[in-house]
Amino acid sequence: MAYSGEPILAADLLFRPTHSLIDQSLHSRMGATTTNGDGFGIGWYGEGSTPAVFKSVEPAWNDENLHEIAGQIRTPLLFAHVRAATGTPVQRSNSHPFRHEDWLWMHNGSLRGFHDIKRELMMAVDPSLYGDVRGSTDSETLFFLALTFGLHDDPFGAVERAVGFVEAVGRAHGIEHPVQMTVATTDGESTWVFRYSSEQASRTLFYSTEISALRRLHPEVEVLHRLGDETRLVVSEPLRDLEGAWTEMPEASAAVVRAGHDDIRPFHPAVPA
Amino acid sequence: MAYSGEPILAADLLFRPTHSLIDQSLHSRMGATTTNGDGFGIGWYGEGSTPAVFKSVEPAWNDENLHEIAGQIRTPLLFAHVRAATGTPVQRSNSHPFRHEDWLWMHNGSLRGFHDIKRELMMAVDPSLYGDVRGSTDSETLFFLALTFGLHDDPFGAVERAVGFVEAVGRAHGIEHPVQMTVATTDGESTWVFRYSSEQASRTLFYSTEISALRRLHPEVEVLHRLGDETRLVVSEPLRDLEGAWTEMPEASAAVVRAGHDDIRPFHPAVPA
Amino acid sequence: MAYSGEPILAADLLFRPTHSLIDQSLHSRMGATTTNGDGFGIGWYGEGSTPAVFKSVEPAWNDENLHEIAGQIRTPLLFAHVRAATGTPVQRSNSHPFRHEDWLWMHNGSLRGFHDIKRELMMAVDPSLYGDVRGSTDSETLFFLALTFGLHDDPFGAVERAVGFVEAVGRAHGIEHPVQMTVATTDGESTWVFRYSSEQASRTLFYSTEISALRRLHPEVEVLHRLGDETRLVVSEPLRDLEGAWTEMPEASAAVVRAGHDDIRPFHPAVPA
Amino acid sequence: MAYSGEPILAADLLFRPTHSLIDQSLHSRMGATTTNGDGFGIGWYGEGSTPAVFKSVEPAWNDENLHEIAGQIRTPLLFAHVRAATGTPVQRSNSHPFRHEDWLWMHNGSLRGFHDIKRELMMAVDPSLYGDVRGSTDSETLFFLALTFGLHDDPFGAVERAVGFVEAVGRAHGIEHPVQMTVATTDGESTWVFRYSSEQASRTLFYSTEISALRRLHPEVEVLHRLGDETRLVVSEPLRDLEGAWTEMPEASAAVVRAGHDDIRPFHPAVPA
């Protein structure tokens, strides 16, 4: 989940089920009944320009420290993720969100056959960045490929090049559908989101309707009056059965979320030069 | 799950899905898709008379150390438990099985209103035992009440007196149905199992059919040929859809599992003198 | 360590060695070279009146999440503790600071023979509080005795009665010197500190000199210019070899630290009525 | 510490201070008073040919599960290690011993400037092995270089080539003394140990005197009578002040430890072809 907007208490987003935009199913997502509680992480911007990350291998619902700090963090931009491990160890350094300088990155999905193509992918990571890779996941590798291909300057293009590269390497190794992904990444100001898979059947991704429109639709939902007009939520699945609240991102699309103006566009992987 | 019989590799019981008595659903029980992965523990007898316990707050499927040692433990008696926390902290000292001297104890269920009656229950624990309570759960308290009421000498009677006491205290505090339980406890030689609830709608408990009968029924299941005739498994839910393999313990009943001869009898809580 | 004063970034207190009031020896206290890294905890006041606690069983220096959140917490009142376990399990619920409603409590030392007198001490805890005890330490029990004997209304008297009670019970059990302690406790406004032991040879406790005086003494120490005049630090050992910075609490004494005015007085255990 | 010889209970090696070959200082090594308790691990051979590893980020003295299983593991070959982290995360996958198929590997020391040369070192790891690297340490990288350069067939030569390669790459990056190490590695039958550093001032390494000779020297030390004649211990520092018990490995030397016959020889790094 990616939140941006007025500063909000993290606990209100993560753990306040009743009369909130995020209902009981978030508890599921956060680990109580989740299919795979293989780690949890939140990243947020506050003091300084570099985001903080609180990551854990505990199911989120059991992490007392997470509950404690969520009640103390007030932030305008929060990423929250529950990991479904796909072969690499469950450890804090393999939990999302990943961070590099002022950027955060979350990825749901996988790079198929990663064990066999990891070396080739890692060799394409810029030498100056290689030593900063702290974990061993496909998700973090994809992040560092995006950084290598220009995430700082051209996020849409950088991710298109990263995905194009992984698909090329994967297919050279006989992997038919190398990439399955939804991705959210941010520099603390804007958030870019992506939905794509090689097999053209991607995991879902939804973004929230404008809060002012939602308030008119559902005047009885209390939290909507506490959220500012610039509130944007991007989630894997609609987190609350509130009619009109969520719009699905199209297959093979990307968007940027920033104050005032959003932008959805097609996503086309490109093999980097 | 409680296993007794020929020495068996713990990994064969816990993690060997195919051609095994315990199939994919055990993976669920062990944490991958479990509703509440609030800790896991195994206890077993090997060197010396005192059992060892390996307990953790991680979901079992993610606990690499558990996988490692399960491949090295060969034991004739193993207890395995996944905890569903009911209000007390998730920490190793609150994971089952609990141990006192040579005894192990596991409990599925809860003592309702425990927060309000805990003090009265703990005051009834024998003073010589009080300091040995290491955690804060209702399950461990019930264990220490059973120890207080004579578990070493008369397991059936001790548990009947412990449950009777909890029900009396609970009802005095306005709790209509104080006790919900299935319990397994062992001294390393025999295992006693109990199924009871104040509301007469207890969680399920099953025991395995004799292995020789099972072998005749299912000659194709490989593991049955590796298990000895004295194999006994007691489980919360049938772990494999193998016809004839599991018999349900009746409501309000108890049994002792020991080499050669089993014994099922009714369970009647009794307020201790 | 107990800090009160102007809001300060927790990381500046815990982890900024150079040009700071807390130098490399704090790193020791925080776990890198500590004699017993049996858990670490911080408690602080921020959003709402109830303090948050971040507690862990990891050595503090290795706890990446602690580093992350310390860079994001700005607070006027912070407690930090490293635990030296004396027999009870190392688990989050046994780490300090302990919390009850708006109060925090830290204790260095031990109640000797605790295993044998625990039951009698716990039976003296007010029944309405009994269920709130989450761990199993002597330190938490002492806290709940202090709450029982009136910590909210008369902190000095409550702790004197709690200590007097423990000494009476201990001596009845043949324990010659039952209590060794330095204690810090706060309600978010004022902080009370205590130094006492039954054997009259207590662990050390120091408080900081007024910052304005320190600035005149040591104009070269940069951080002193960033700390407000109301800064108060109470520590177990002088954390920096800065002459004139620390004054030792006398044997058998107590003090209250609050904006504007401090107050040191003798400490006399009293057996409660 | 590397033990080989008669099957022994792991707890006797790790935790039995009195009348044992390993005295109180082992407790230090195991974490109670260690300078850097950044993880602990044991590896041992038992069921099957592949060793099991129990690794943790907890200080060893606090790891209750470690104590539990140590009382149940009886093995003829045990590796035990306490990690002093040098920049990479403290996580289970970064704890020693590392394992690959039937081999275990432990390393005390560091590869200096690792962050800057990691990429070049990892690119030299055989492509078929690259995906098996699970952590991010210099120690594990050195292991995989040794595997690449023929550890299975020629352990002495493989480690000489691995070290020679690291030194060549390091010096090309302006690192004057790239390698500081003592290493122990085993295939379950023989154990190879190495002591070397680029600066010719290596960390210490000691091996135990023949048990029969020790028994004659110290008839009063009880455990010596329980250890078989083939007992070999290799340790970083003499674990007990027992005269004549320990011999220091020379600077720049290597040895193989196997039943019946040991073999010490000079160690000369060689840049691989």
Describe the structure.
Four copies of one chain form a homotetramer. With 273 residues, chain A is α+β, with helices and mostly antiparallel strands. Chain A has a single domain, classed as Glutamine Phosphoribosylpyrophosphate, subunit 1, domain 1 (4-Layer Sandwich). Chain A is built from eight helices and 13 strands. Chain A has helices spanning 10-14, 24-29, 64-70, 114-123, 127-130, 138-148, 155-172, 211-217, and strands at residues 2-9, 40-44, 52-56, 74-82, 98-100, 103-111, 179-186, 191-197, 206-208, 232-235, 246-248, 253-258, 261-266. A seven-stranded antiparallel sheet of chain A has the order 3-2-4-1-10-9-11. Chain A has a six-stranded antiparallel sheet with strand order 5-6-7-8-12-13, covered by helices on one side. The first copy, chain A, is globular, with a radius of gyration of 18 Å. Chains in contact: A-B, A-C, A-D, B-C, B-D, C-D.
